[in-house]
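Data availability (excerpt). The following record was deposited with the supplementary files.
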Amino acid sequence: MFDAGFAEVMVIAVIALLVIGPERLPEVASTIGGWIGRAKAFVSSTKADIEREFQASEMRDILSDQKKEIEELRQMVSDTQDDFKQNVDEAKGLFEDNINSSIEEVKTLDQDQKSDDNSSEDSKTLEQNKQSDDNHNSMSKDTSETKKHG
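Predicted structure:
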């Protein structure tokens, strides 16, 4: 606080002894000592408050920085989720397209097979009809020959 050496303190003590007198000097010294003690306590308290405030300020800065980092991380997670959803939707669309095209192919193959079955049934029916006509014609010939011979 004060830059007072031993010589200055002695000069102040001699002047105080002359001004105050020897009877009241111990009482005044005690009062001045109390004031000095309170002043030191006040300075220490103020110094501690300033240090705490400085630390609190640093903590607020750190907290602010961490909040910014957390917000950046949240944004990154959100972007990643959006990308993931988009990829899943694309994959889902491709999968559905493949399934639908496969279903169409199966339907086409089924229709082709039914057509082939119908064609072969039609061919069989035509063949049977021919055989039936041939049988009928041969029976007619047999009947007419029997009538001729009979």
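Summary of structural features: The chain has one domain: 22-149.
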